[in-house]
Write a structure and sequence with these properties.
GO terms for molecular function: translation elongation factor activity. This protein has 278 residues and is α+β, with helices and mostly antiparallel strands. Helix content is 49%, strand content 22%. It is elongated, with a radius of gyration of 24 Å.
Length: 278
Amino acid sequence: MANYTAADIKALRERTGAGMMDVKKALDEANGDAEKAIEIIRVKGLKGATKREGRSAAEGLIAATVADGAGVMIEINCETDFVAKADKFINLGNTVLEVAAASKAADVDALLAAEYNGRTLGDHVTEEGALMGEKVVVRRVARVEGAFVDAYLHKTSKDLPAQVGVLMAVDSDSAEAQTAAHDVAVHIAAMAPTYLSRDEVAEDVVANERRIAEETARAEGKPEQAMQKIIEGRLTGFFKEIVLEDQGFAKDPKVSVGKVLEQAGTKGVKFARFRVGS
């Protein structure tokens, strides 16, 4: 007869994030000793890490924080939504975020190499993934600075942690600028722009879009005298799709995001947007 209860299984699952069968097997092997069971789960998990390398880690969470005029955001992935919503995984995401903020790591490699409790963060993530029995990956990190930075996290499901995250930096910290920055961050979460301003769009991208617009207009038999106006109009439409400042503001599409920021006495400096798995 097993010398542990259903409550013991539940408690150990919450502590490790491991699956029910893995927890039961570990408790059986440990004769009900929870600490020994955790050790067994960790060892078996680390041994299985190589096997998990090829598996897809498409679930996960976004976490963000702002301090001293700098916003930091991370994406950390796992394999299943069960683990994504587990306290242990959420706590790991918070740890990764704390290290990212403290280390000011510019990329994932630097972040994983950062020190955490006497070892690298990468080693800690690997061990935590072993406990959960899943492939866990730190996928992205972003750092955005400005006079004011708003961090917005959006849940696509009430049962899961945030799946979309945005950092929006502006060049003023007035009350009006802060409100506008937040509203624009919410807009970015929904509308997914690629660039802040037209200046950020590479010349070859613009040239290619202009070529496509011209070829399309000619194929449609548009009159030559109207050709340039048609091309510029379609190019403007292209910018409205991908450039934040040119997009119609989600709350009032008749007004551009650039105009919203201007009316608040500020200007966008930089933004970052993450969506889990994309």
